Amino acid sequence: MPGPLADIVVLDLSRALAGPHAAQMLGDLGAKVIKVEHPDGGDESRGWGPPFVGPDRDISTYFLAANRNKQSIALDLKSDEGKRLVERLVRRSDVLVENFRTGVLDRLGFSAERLHELNPRLVILSITGFGHDGPEGGRPGYDQIAQGEGGLMSLTGPSPDEPYRVGSSIADLLAGIHGAYGVSAALYEREHTGKGRVVRTSLLAAVTGVHAYHGTAWTVGGQVPRANGNHHASIAPYGTFRCADGLLSIAAANDGQWKKVAALLDIDPTLAKYATNRDRFAHRDELIADMEKALAAHDRGHWLARLGEMGVPAGAIRSIDEVYAWDQTRSQGLLVEVDHQVLGPIELPGPPLRIEGAETAHTAPPMLDQDRDAVLRWLEEREE
Questions:
Q1: Which residues does the annotation mark as catalytic?
Q2: What is the pTM of this model?
Q3: CATH assignment of 238-318, given 3.30.1540.10, 3.90.226.10, 1.20.120.790, 3.40.50.300?
Q4: Which of 87, 139, 194, 384 has minimal Cβ neighbours within 10 Å of its Cβ?
Q5: Which strands make up the sheet holding 71-74, listed edge to edge?
C-alpha cells in the first residue's frame, strides 16, 4: 500500500533545514514533493560541509539528510518566467512549504492572499525564526540563535555556568516536525471545508514548545531551571554513571526501580537520604558517589546485562557509527538504501515513523535541477 499522503503534492520553496525537513517528512508519508531551488547553487545547504562526497567532493552530506523523496527544479523566483512557473505549480499543489524571512514571499508577489487566489485549497506552511509577528517578528534566525534565545542552551551543559547547544540542529528539526503535523491537520480539515489554511511555526516556538516540565518549573513553581549535566532535573538516580570501563546510563524513575538498583549495588534503599525520590534528589551527589563506587567493580557489559535482567532501564552511550551498525536500529527501518544519481547506492537515515501496511519507496536526494523535464511533463499532464 502507498503512504497515506500518496495523493498529495507538496511544493517545497524552503531551504536549509527546518522547511526541507518538514517537506521530507511529508514525502516519507508518500507525498509527491517538488523542491524549487535557485539556479545559482540551489539550496544553500548544498554548500554546507564537511563532509562532502562524490567524485568531485562537491555533494554535501548535510543536504542529503533533509531532501530524500523529492524532485528538484531550478527557478529564479525574481524572474517573470520563474514566477509564472511557480504560479502553475501552486495551482496544482496541495501544500506549499516556505521558510523565507517575514515579508520576502510577499515582495516576490506570493503573499498568502495571492497564493489562495491561485489555489483556495492550498495549505501553506510558513516557518520563521522568531514568528511572523510580534515585536521581533521577521528577525532572522538560525538554529544556534534559537537554542540560545529560547532557553534551551541554559538547560544544556555540565553546569549553569557553561551553557551548551544541543549537538543536533534541534530547533530546525523540531520546527519541521511541528510544521508537518500542522500540515497534516490542515489537510484533514480541508476535507470538510474545501479550503486551505496558513500553518505557522518558528524556531523559537519549536524550542519553547519542548520546555515541558522545565517550563512549568518556572511558570507554576517559580524556579528557574538550570543545566544539570547528564543527570535529570527532577529524578534520581537518572543519568550517566562511571563504571570500570567507561560510562553507562541508568534511569530509575520510581521507587520500585530504585530498590532493584540499590539491591544490585549493595546500597541500603531504606536510608533516610535515599528513601524517596525527593530525598535522593536532595542528596544526589552522595548518591552518585555511592553508585559509582559500586559500579567500578565491573565493566559496562556486566552491569547492562544485570540491569536488563531486573527490568531497570539502562543503556550504553553509543557513537553515531555504533548506532547505525546496531541491529535494533536497522530492524526499525531507521536506515534506507536509495540509488543516488552520482553516488550510486547509498544508505540514509530513515524516517522515524512507521505506519502498518503502508510503505514508501524512498528516492535519493536530487542533484540541482535534476527533475526539470519530469516536473514539466507532470505539470502539463495535470493542466490538460
A1: 172
A2: 0.93
A3: 3.30.1540.10
A4: 384
A5: 71-74, 32-37, 9-12, 95-98, 123-128, 198-202
